[in-house]
Write a structure and sequence with these properties.
alpha/beta; seven-stranded mixed sheet; RNA nuclease activity; NYN domain-containing protein
Length: about 325
């Protein structure tokens, strides 16, 4: 049996020389291991990825350059714009390598269109598809972005994430990625009056950047000779006021509360001011039907809609 302790009448009882030597050896091995780890980290290049909500890009760029969000009325040079995004990221992160660009779009039954197929064939680009409903509204795109952003951050596959979008539903993904140590940078396209990105999203990210008309104009071209169907032209008019949209939000809240009951209200309140994705989508669809136009690209009006919804619910307490 090894004797780690010695008795010295002049010093009392304490650890023996062999015990101290083993501690010193252990500390030395630990220091060597830490040195190797730090050296490996120092030589591992930083990595970034770009997460682009195509619906936001089309709507915001279309409105900025041509005055409309209707994708049928203009052409977007997606290849050129994606390359411009890659170049911009390269200049901002000079010591980082690109993992890939994730391009999130919607399609009927998640079947690629010819345009989406062309984008998917671009190098360093992965197209991820959500669904399109009967009103040409994207379904499931935000959840795809959240899943990819959180997963890559969790596995330390990226150190920086460029997020091109504006929906408030992305706040939880930003928070989760930051929790895993990734920095999230929000890029947007200049809005024609007001904002097209949720304030809550702007508050959470690590940095912000906005691309102006001069940047976007080379990639957007108006199609000649196209006219929307008469029934669509009839419902598309000037954007409603914030108060009009707020009133519609309260109206939808009254309908929601009448069908779900106060028990559902109690479950919803702890999340204020955020709405679960399903409830938020239901609110948006019902409001757009009542208003007769899409709120896509109108972040300020969508916030007013949520405010009206919450105002009515909280008044019932």
């Amino acid at each position: 049996m090894t004797n780690y302790w010695s008795v010295d009448p002049s010093r009392g009882t304490g650890p023996g020389p062999q015990y101290l030597a083993e501690i010193a050896a252990g500390i030395e091995r630990t220091n060597e291991l830490l040195t190797r780890v730090l050296a490996e980290v120092a030589t591992t290049p930083a990595t970034h990825a770009v997460f682009a909500d195509a619906g936001y890009v089309y709507a915001a760029a279309g409105r900025l350059v041509t005055g409309t969000e209707d994708r049928r009325t203009f052409e977007l040079d997606a290849e050129g714009l994606i390359e411009a995004f890659i170049d911009k990221a390269r200049s901002i992160f000079p010591d980082s390598r690109l993992l890939r660009v994730y391009w999130y779009d919607g399609a009927r039954r998640r079947i690629h269109t010819a345009e989406q197929q062309g984008i998917a064939e671009l190098p360093d680009v992965k197209v991820r598809l959500g669904n399109l409903n009967a009103n040409n509204q994207q379904k499931g795109v935000d959840s795809l972005i959240r899943t990819d952003l959180e997963s890559l951050a969790r596995h330390r596959a990226i150190s920086d994430a460029v997020l091109i979008g504006g929906d408030e539903d992305l706040v939880s993904a930003v928070e989760a990625a930051q929790g895993y140590g990734a920095r999230v940078h929000l890029w947007g396209i200049e809005a024609v009056g007001g904002r097209n990105q949720a304030e809550a999203l702007l508050w959470e990210v690590d940095s912000q950047r906005t691309f102006d008309l001069e940047f976007c104009k080379p990639y957007v071209t108006r199609r000649t000779g196209y006219e929307p169907p008469v029934e669509e032209r009839a419902v598309q008019g000037p954007a409603p006021s914030r108060e009009d949209v707020r009133f519609v939000g309260a109206r939808v809240a009254a309908q929601w509360l009448g069908s779900r009951g106060r028990a559902s209200l109690a479950e919803l309140l702890p999340g204020h001011p955020y709405l679960p994705g399903g409830v938020d989508q239901e609110l948006l669809v019902e409001a757009e039907a009542l208003l007769g136009l899409s709120l896509r690209g109108h972040a300020e009006l969508r916030r007013a809609l949520r405010d009206g919804f919450w105002d009515h619910l909280r008044a019932q307490l």
